[in-house]
Amino acid sequence: MNTTIFKAKKNFSLATHPTDISDIITEEEAKSQLKKIRKELSALQDKMYAHNRYSVLICLQGIDTAGKDSLIREIFEKFNVRGIDVQSFKTPTTKELKHDYLWRHSIALPEKGKFGIYNRTHYENVLVTRVHPSYLLNENIPGIERVEDIPKDFWKMRYQQINNFEEQLQQNGTIVLKFFLNLSKAEQKSRLLRRLEKEDHQWKFSPDDLKERALWDKYMEYYEEAIQHTSKSKNPWHIIPSDNKTISRYLVAKIILERLKKLKDIQYPSMSKEIENDLKHYKKMLNEE
């Protein structure tokens, strides 16, 4: 499958991207392919950890029930835990609000050699605060005392700040991969109903889920706008059809693997000459124990 079709290009519109492609690839095919890709990603992670030159930041965005948690679990289950770190960004804490909005994301960035996964990301700051502009007042930004004080160009300024942030990461060896899990409203309804019906899923449900669902059109409008302004050639957004979770996981895993395979300089470090010269001696010492 040609994964370039999932990139958000110029004049991006959500309406042109499907939420279901099960007519193109079956769930069984996706599951089989994901199994192979998991092994390749795991082997590549091990090499990248030893190489210690690049880090990988995987950004997952999507409306509630889009499948972010299960996607993380299924794709990265073979990874060495030393080389991966998952961050889930909730409502900013009092301490986080005493800093600029990118601070908490900056201090959570993956170290070189490691994979970092943002389950919800710095884009929450141009999505949730857009739908609920009163939330912005918690940031204590000079000159903004009321919602009416927010300048007309405020959000474009934030898009540019985010672009600069990601470009800086890219220039310093962090591979940024951004995925929007594109879920239909009908499928979200089905998943919310399952939460209510299945005893082991009921704990996930909150009445706020329905309040946010009522704002679906606003969220889609602002997702589209944010993606339009921040999908760049070096850091593009990938719009992943997510009505079928298995297919969604396969596509994300495939895109990650394809991107990382472009890094031709990744290799295990060479053994030092001193150790190499005494290799037979060390083997003899161990064998004679």
What does this structure look like?
43% of the residues lie in helices and 11% in strands. With 289 residues, the protein is of the alpha/beta class. The protein has a single domain (3-287), classed as Rossmann fold (3-Layer(aba) Sandwich). Strands 2-3-1-4-5 form a five-stranded parallel sheet, sandwiched between helices. Helix 3 (103-106) links the parallel strand 2 (84-88) and strand 3. The longest helix is centred in the first third of the chain and has 25 residues, at 27-51. It is globular and about 75 Å long.
Characteristics:
289 residues; alpha/beta; Rossmann fold; 5-stranded parallel β-sheet; 11 helices
Query: Structural class given helices, strands, pairing?
Result: alpha/beta
Report the mean per-residue pLDDT as an integer.
95
Q: Briefly note the CATH topology name.
A: Rossmann fold
Main sheet attributes: strand count, strand direction, barrel closure = 5 strands, parallel
Which CATH class applies here?
Alpha Beta
